[in-house]
Amino acid sequence: MQVVLIKVIRNKITSQPKGYGFVEFNSHAAAERVLQTYNGTQMPGTEQTLRLNWASFGIGERRPDARPEHSIFVGDLAPDVTDYLLQETFRTQYPSVRGAKVVTDPNTGRSKGYGFVKFADEMERNRAMSEMNGVYCSTRQMRISAATPKKTTGFQQQYAAARGFYWKPGPQCHRRGTEANIFAVWGNYLCEDPHIKRMWASAEEAIQWMQGTMIGQQAVHLSWGRSPTAKQHLNWNPKLIAAFSCACKWFDDVAKRVLWKEFCKARAPKMMLDLQSSGSHSVDGNWRALGKLLIYCPGCTKGGLFNNIHIHGHFVYRTRFSRTSGKSFLLLQCRTDVLYVSDPCEHLDQGEEGDVGFFRGVFKSFAMSKVRKMLISRGAKFNPTEVCPYCKAKLWSMLQAKMVPQSASCRLGSYEDAIEYYVCLNGHVLGICTLLPLSDSEASELE
Fold first, then answer.
1. Rounded to two decimals, what is the model's pTM?
2. Cα gap 309→347, rounded to integer Å
3. How far apart are CA 366 and CA 363, in angstroms?
């Protein structure tokens, strides 16, 4: 055995081994003997099994005898299946098999339940796909499909050309407990935050794992793609986005950076365009807080912000936010500020004097607003116990600061002395008012 060079691949930042490496021999025959002798054996001094395969490239250059390879994807593998066992399962039937690889978790070393087999002969690869599907390997029947070919342009070019992948669902893909639920958050399109490059590998793994899976009577078809109209197909369900965020930290990051932002744009496109027109790619607070503000009325509890009543929070799916209405909530000297305020959601017979209305709002660039400067100059105090229900920031009472104009009650249709609202450090607005009752003529028209 003549070893020419050994190279262990290490992390460029931590210098810790990544768990794999390359060994170069002085001849192909020597490498072949080592592969046949040691593949699948236990590594000395450890409990791990040696997994040996032909390298696609040598250390620094391509093998001179490199030939085209044709691969298949093999799923539903038992935990005890090794590279060697998978390879020999196919090699006994197809002499052109050049190697096999069982994909393992890099942290635990355990099999992920799927792998790949390479063939030198395309005809044998095609035969294997039909003849070996359902055949046992160890204790389980294999599920076989075509492997997505690797690109030759390098990781960065693949990533730039593939921001997401498409899923074409069948007619029976909406039942609970099926693989379709994996993609429920995204609808028909799975997009990816370009700043989180680690998820590219997860997307590729999802393609390999789910490709060809049967859901009902329909096979799943996945492919890389990018479309300027892809966002039109997204299913912006806030509850599913929230559930997606709870899966893990990486999913939560994607939800914060991408999903809630796109949700806000889809829910109130003109308002979002205006809020970002100052050149910022973000909003005060965060996108998740703004998304919640758009669709959720937090209600109130006795002893809280509006301490005389108790009303449960609830979703408000149809709400209009108006910049014109917002001006009515500002003193004359502050009306160059931009404030969007919602129509009040009514709670009938909840207040001491009749119907109660809750309204929500948001300032544009609140940190630079005249309202904020006036609150500070007037020495306004923060509420000592309550915080913003959307972003958890501290709250100023506009009523205590004497900054609620009469025009606000006129706009809402409420009593002049029965309106109160708060604004937080991030410019989120939450208010309550007692609504004026309808006149007899108006009431009769509605009956």
1. 0.50
2. 11
3. 5
- Report pLDDT digits (tens) over 234-270: 457 787 788 777 777 777 888 888 888 888 888 888 9
Instruction: Write the pLDDT tens digit of every residue in 308-346.
Output: 677 888 888 777 899 988 898 999 999 999 999 998 887
Question: Domain 1-66 has what CATH class?
Answer: alpha beta
End-to-end CA distance of the chain: 96
Per residue in 405-414, pLDDT tens? 888 877 766 6
- Residue 67's identity, in one-letter code, is R
Instruction: Outline which parts of the chain fall under CATH 3.30.70.330.
Output: 1-66, 67-147
Residue bearing tokens 């969007």: 340
Residue indicated by tokens 């939560």: 252
* 194 φψ region: left (φ > 0), alpha (ψ -120 to 50), beta (else): alpha
DSSP-derived 3-state class of residue 23: strand
Between CA 199 and CA 165 the distance in angstroms is 12
With CA atoms as reference, report the closest residue to 238 among 273, 276, 218, 266: 266
Q: Regarding the domain delimited by 67-147, which CATH topology (the fold level of the hierarchy) does it fall under?
A: Alpha-Beta Plaits (3.30.70)
**What CATH number does the domain located at 156-267 have?**
3.30.70
Which residues have a Cβ under 8 Å from the Cβ of 433 and sit 6 or more positions away? 344, 356, 357, 359, 409, 412, 414, 415, 418, 419, 420
Residue 211: helix, strand or coil by DSSP? coil
